[in-house]
Task: inverse folding
């Protein structure tokens, strides 16, 4: 779809002015009511969740929040959730299941937060539970990566029936910086890492991780947030149409098999 | 490390200096001593091995190979191993990945980082999963993900409990996003085993970290840890880099996880088999709905 190398996509998605969920939610959904808290510990500003209408259908929205400025980033911890963010996501997903609402996940994170308190409150367990519960959640789940899909912190909202990526978005096992630092002991080789890691939407289509690519305006989403939001809406509409036609067993089996099929080995 | 070696050798043989008279360093076999990564104390490998590879000073439970683990855990000759010959391909075309795997296979005698199969503990049938940190730090690539998923699927189909000894550095970088997806794949298989009402016991061994902690390792009905082992999500150095200060030694230990509520019990290696047998027995009678 585009020949831009991963290293240049990094520049586009980090550009100041790239739309975030705070821009997209009002453009895509109507009457968004935000819900707070995981009912266990607290409320995490890195994960925004709530109920809204999507073209007249009630849906649950769960979104990772990258700030557009320093104040927003302080509130959202630069889009890096703590365990309570993942537990809020799970609570809202279970609520969606109860009321037969589809779940729309908007992914945009460098990764789950790495800190002392995140460990004390069980970051690993919180992500693991999301992954397991989303796998059998009895309602359609559509996930869209808007910018950065970083590691397990992104996957926690990425277990779904269909995964789409914006044209310039990336999805990776670790940030390119982390990759360079881990394998070459040199974080400055980030761009080189990005280009060999296979992290663009095209790469991930080929690896059958991503199911659809949502086009961005020339130069990137920041050049026209409205038209990007419209393209996202069109994708969500078509994905939900496809999922609403399926029985529950078929939906869940296809979700299981989507992930079941990934892996390359001989025997 | 070298100084530690010499100090122990001096104690044992009473040589006053590590330098021999002709100026050459003494010929000490590399595997003569064990230095504990938790407490730093040094002991003779012979004593350490006799102690079940547990540090005689601080009780840190050191890493075992998967074969060693099976030997002390399951009934003799009871293993029917699954998917013995499965090998990873190179899904993202990572430079030198095939050669690296081949070298490790020759060195460790393992095909990849996990052994799975059907086995017995004190006569009770189980499906067992044992990860081996000697192969690429038991990182989770295609083979690890597929074998674990199949083991759970077999257990679900045959109504068997699963016991998983986890150890892993996390995702396998060389397999990129395909590695990340193994977290979803394995957790999906755990979900189905769980929905079938079957028992899953995790035993976290050194080290259980990253994507394995954030998937099947944290999903056991019962989570056991060996004493003093490392358990966590993020790497210690990553966190130290974020907060710009050094973390206490006990951070991310089994004891830290117990205190914070993420581990049911810490069990010593010499009591593990007995404990697992008791827990299996406790789950044989399923209460009111038992058929």
Result:
């Amino acid at each position: 779809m585009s020949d831009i190398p991963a290293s240049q996509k990094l520049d586009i998605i980090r550009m100041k002015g790239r739309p975030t969920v705070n821009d997209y939610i009002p453009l895509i959904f109507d009457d968004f009511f935000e819900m707070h808290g995981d009912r266990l510990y607290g409320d995490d500003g890195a994960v925004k969740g709530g109920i809204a209408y999507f073209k007249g259908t009630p849906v649950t929205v769960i979104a990772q929040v990258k700030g557009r400025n320093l104040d927003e980033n302080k509130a959202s911890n630069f889009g890096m959730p703590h365990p309570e963010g993942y537990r809020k996501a799970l609570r809202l997903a279970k609520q969606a299941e109860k009321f037969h609402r589809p779940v729309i996940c908007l992914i945009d994170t460098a990764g789950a937060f790495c800190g002392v308190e995140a460990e004390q409150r069980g970051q690993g367990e919180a992500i693991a539970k999301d992954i397991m519960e989303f796998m059998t959640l009895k309602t359609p789940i559509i996930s869209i990566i808007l910018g950065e899909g970083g590691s397990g912190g992104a996957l926690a909202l990425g277990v779904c029936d269909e995964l789409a990526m914006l044209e310039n978005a990336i999805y990776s096992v670790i940030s390119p910086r982390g990759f360079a630092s881990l394998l070459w002991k040199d974080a400055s080789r980030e761009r080189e890492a990005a280009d060999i890691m296979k992290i663009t939407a095209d790469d991930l289509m080929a690896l059958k991780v991503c199911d659809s690519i949502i086009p961005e305006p020339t130069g990137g989403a920041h050049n026209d947030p409205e038209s990007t939001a419209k393209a996202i809406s069109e994708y969500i509409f078509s994905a939900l149409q496809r999922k609403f036609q399926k029985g529950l067993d078929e939906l869940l089996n296809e979700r299981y098999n989507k992930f079941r099929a990934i892996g390359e080995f001989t025997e | 490390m070298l100084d530690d070696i010499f100090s122990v050798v001096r104690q044992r043989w009473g040589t006053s200096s590590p330098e021999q008279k002709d100026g050459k360093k003494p010929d000490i076999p590399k595997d003569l001593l064990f230095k504990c990564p938790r407490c730093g104390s040094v002991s003779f490998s012979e004593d350490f091995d006799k102690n079940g590879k547990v540090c005689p000073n601080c009780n840190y439970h050191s890493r075992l190979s998967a074969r060693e683990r099976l030997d002390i855990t399951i009934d003799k000759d009871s293993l029917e191993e699954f998917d013995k010959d499965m090998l990873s391909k190179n899904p993202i075309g990572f430079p030198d990945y095939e050669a690296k795997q081949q070298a490790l296979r020759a060195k460790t005698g393992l095909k990849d980082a996990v052994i799975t199969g059907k086995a017995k503990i004190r006569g009770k049938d189980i499906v067992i999963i044992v990860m081996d940190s000697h192969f690429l730090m038991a990182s989770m690539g295609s083979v690890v993900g597929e074998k674990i998923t199949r083991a759970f699927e077999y257990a679900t189909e045959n109504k068997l409990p699963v016991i998983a000894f986890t150890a892993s550095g996390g995702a396998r970088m060389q397999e990129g996003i395909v590695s990340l997806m193994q977290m979803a794949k394995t957790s999906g298989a755990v979900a189905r085993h769980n929905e079938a009402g079957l028992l899953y016991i995790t035993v976290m061994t050194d080290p259980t970290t990253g994507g394995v902690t954030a998937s099947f390792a944290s999903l056991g009905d019962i989570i056991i840890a060996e004493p003093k082992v490392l358990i966590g999500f993020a790497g210690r150095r990553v966190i130290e880099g974020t907060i710009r200060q050094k973390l206490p030694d006990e951070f991310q230990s089994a004891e830290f996880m117990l205190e914070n509520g993420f581990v049911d019990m810490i069990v010593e290696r010499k009591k593990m088999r007995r404990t697992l047998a008791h827990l299996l027995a406790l789950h044989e009678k399923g209460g009111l709905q038992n058929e």
